[in-house]
Amino acid sequence: MSGTSWARVVLWSVCTCLVVPHEAVSQQKFYPDDPLLSDNDSLDVPEKPEEIELSDMFDRFGHMFHDWGASAAGSEALNVNTLDEVPDSSWFTNRHGVRRMSLEELAKGPNQGTGPDPSETWTVFRSKSQGLTPGFQIYDEGDERYIIKLDPVEVPEIASAAEVIATKIFYALGYHAPENYIVRVHPDRFTIEPGTEVEDSYGDKMPLTPFRFNRSIRRVPRLEDGTMRVTASKYLSGIPIGPFRYFETRSDDPNDVIPHEDRRELRGLRLIAAWLNHDDTRAQNTQDAWVEQDGRHFVRHYMLDFGSTLGSGSVDMQYAPLTFTYTLDFREMRRNALGFGFRVPEYRRAQWPAFPEYQAVGRYESELFDCEGWRNDYPNPAFVRMTARDAFWAAKLIMRFTREEIAAMAATGEYSNPDHAPYLVDTIVARQQKCGRFGINAMNPVAEMEVAGGRLGFVNLSEQYGFAEGETRYESSWSSFDNETGATTPLVEARVSQERSLDLPPGARDAFLVAELRSLNEAFPDWRETVRIYLRRGSSGYEVVGVERESPESNTFPMN
Amino acid sequence: MTTRALLVIAAIVSVAAESTAQSQESSPPSSRQEILVRKRREKAERLEPYEVSSTEDRMRGFEKAKFPQNWLVKGWNGIRPVIGGMPSGSGFVMGGGYVHGLENQYYGFQANGRYSTRGYTMFDGEFVLPPPQVGRRVELKVRGEYRDFTSLRFYGLGNDSSVEDRSTYLLNDTKATAYFWLNPRGLLSLGAEAGFTTIRTDSGNDDRSIEDVFDPEDVPGFMEERTDYIIAGGWAEFDLRDKWENPAVGVVARITGTRYEDTGLSEHDFTRIVGDVKGYIPLGPRSRILALRARTSHAVDDEGKDVPFYMMETLGGAATVRGFREFRFRDERNLYLSAEYRWEVSPYVDFTLFFDAGKVFSDLDDYNLDKMHTGYGFGIRTHAPGGMQLRFDLANSTEGFKFHIGGGPSF
Fold first, then answer.
1. Distance in Å, alpha carbon of B346 to nearest chain A alpha carbon
2. Is the pLDDT of residue A430 over 90?
3. Contact between B81 and B67 (Cβ < 8 Å)
4. Does B79 reside within a domain?
5. Smallest Cβ distance to A341: which of B5, B287, B385?
6. Which of B294, B385, B387 lies closest to B336 in space, CA to CA?
């Protein structure tokens, strides 16, 4: 055999041996790293994805005529772990939901510093004059860049307070948000970088001169010391590559494998947006950034522009009809048209905060508020797909905040009227109760399962938060569970008890156990749907490894 | 070891390494994270540029170019197209104009030229100090206008004129006026105007001109080739509406007096007095509004003089009794009443059912509700905040259906 032939044989042998096909599909239900608390979705993306620009009109109205999402109504979110929770990722980081943040942490939110120092020079390097609401971008003496936003001239404080408060809440919930600061700065502190141009409302550019700059801010209210109140939004780290959509995936981002409409943190955002009146939850108010961390590049997904939250509509008080209907709501239009005026649009019944005393709070109320009936600007593909499980997840997060914690975040809005923050807190709490009740009562509300002292404990969130009346009993049974085949073998017959803990099956040594739990309350037939709690035996005993919630019959919440 | 042997070993190692990776990919995943990593690696193999659709890209292009806002409002260096702005019956109207000072806090200027498919021509220019949007207490406007309308409709004088007598006439006028408005958006505002106009009438270009249907001697002013007027007047307005655009509650009343002095022939000196009251009554919640209007105008000629037909009050068209054509009825005085039941269909759209009634007359004894011409209909109004306001009215009367498209509210 020649050398070449020998080499071929060896090569063939090695290849044959290494590529013997294996069964690639595993039957096991739980893996050793379950429950996955952090999805390490930061596979290195060495080349920056291209920046995209979306059409505002397409974003705003394209969803009115077509559902751009792909998954079927009622399909469940795809990015949840075996506990039915959202693992940390480039989209979301569990914060207050898993570890109670201190009041200081809540008030600080994403802020890493104190914002631009108003005693230093702020250099304007970009400017846009749009009628009465000019905006500009500056860098401070430390070369940090900020977007400077001004409140509507007629309604001081409204947008800056809403922006900062909502930022804190969204951050605590787990979303990635920019650092937003309220700063009082004297107009004299501004200087203009040579060559800076200003763009008027017609898109025409002209050199930004001190005269033009001062003219653009001349109507901005001044405080007693001559300063004006602004919001300084710090540039995000990384390189912006455009907004993310609430559907599909980015085809140039290898880490983006879950269609956005099937991400729970985006579906559940519907409930959160309703709570905080964030009607502007659309692609244009998001930002993807190509960031570097630990030597790797990947895309991080941010939510931006919380100016249209709470009672603020960014450039004025929230427009009264919005949040009750879509911007273009054909169903509502048909009803109103045929009603000949005798059908009164819902928003007309709202009792808004007293005007003008509470104009800085804007149009934010809780009496008429209906968490399920609330509407953002358009049928967001993720929102329309929210299932009972998504709503339950969001409601749990929402209910984590105590009044004191909400007050700590509301205080960062720095209202000059001392009555405003208390009103806001009352309203946020009242709406929190409504959204919490809606999401938690939507399905069997047992949660927070934990094994301790030979018992599996749990809580009934609905009872814990006072959303349920009447006696609740729990029907439970135990089985052993074969992780490879999925087969179950009954161990303990079903029993009914009022206790919120179950004895583990006596003498259980199985690798996996599963408890089936139904909540029996006459007022809530949906609670009878089974929750399966999977336990895995580890070195220190059993631990909860999985929670499976059967969905109730009314699993979807259409936004027609 | 020969070079060939080294190459063979290197090849084996290379292939083996690749095969190991393939094997790992095809073996069962050992962790949840691995499943996800595999998915991502798989996607990394087939990455594609992420792009928006061509439709969206085109829309984005329009937005960046601020189309059509920039084309129609700002134009190219202020030069812009102009659409509409002539009386109904003009045909399709197109033209061009120049605007300056759109973003200016102190003044605004515009000049426009229009031409219609029926051969109408119009030029106008105005200078405003300061522009209304600035919201100052004082506004001064100087306006010049040239119009050449070749076939305006004329049906005869009086409340009983027949639609069968439709004829046309040519109106060619030039006008220069200055307006001064004090407290224009206040509770009580006052205004004054002064100007000069020269008017020429002639045979209409349509198949039947006035003289083909009527005795020209019976049509005041038609026999004069040209008449010059000095105009001076003023108005007072009391405004109690909740807002200027689409008011839901309140009332606005204006009384106007204008003197027309015939400086040439001195045959057509007269004074016009106009009273106009608009009320808005919410019927329960403000999603239902009853809007009412009463307007009366009286052109009172001096002793021995008369009011020329082209300056008489008319009835019909989009602004009065909508079931009739514009200029359908004409005389020295008129009375016009309108009621609109408006209901909210969406935040940006209202529907309305309306009823109009009106008459023209010359004798003050006829100032009553007898022999009113009536019309009724259905309308749609759009009023996006800060955006374009459009109005579509379909009206019916004894003379059939009429359809009107316009901008801004009916009243």
1. 6
2. yes
3. no
4. no
5. B287
6. B294
